[in-house]
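2024-03-11 09:14:02 DEBUG pipeline.ingest accepted 1 chain
2024-03-11 09:14:02 DEBUG pipeline.ingest length=148
2024-03-11 09:14:03 DEBUG pipeline.predict start
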Amino acid sequence: MSVASDHDVIERHLRAVPARSELARILKLRAVRDAIEDGWTQREIAEQLDVAQPEVSRLAKTARLTPEVCERSPREVLLEYATEQIDHAAMMNELENWNYTFGRTDPTGETYLTGTWDQIERAGDLISDADYQRLFELTASRRAESLA
């Protein structure tokens, strides 16, 4: 193995660490939401997750107040790729076929309301320039419609 490829492997492994943490948080929120919906007590959930009950309370509140964080998102797909849970082809297939929503300002014009496309725009190192460009081109007409 060459020095350059060793460097690339190490860099990918380093980038995967925060991605794993973020993905674990999403999965924990989803699991807490599902358990609560199924009638589990916070104490039971805490035991299963090996956390304190107040942590479960905080997670349950987050899941209740921001239910969109528990739903599958482009960000989750990118995190799964970064942590090598899915391969590049699976990532691109899902992202190419995503029914994106596009950010807009609220009726007052004071607040920006994000869409799922914003997760691609803000992906940083989770997506290559070439992959971003491909998705950008595929969504061009839908983005234009959202501005009209």
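2024-03-11 09:14:41 DEBUG pipeline.report The mean pLDDT is 91.
2024-03-11 09:14:41 DEBUG pipeline.predict end
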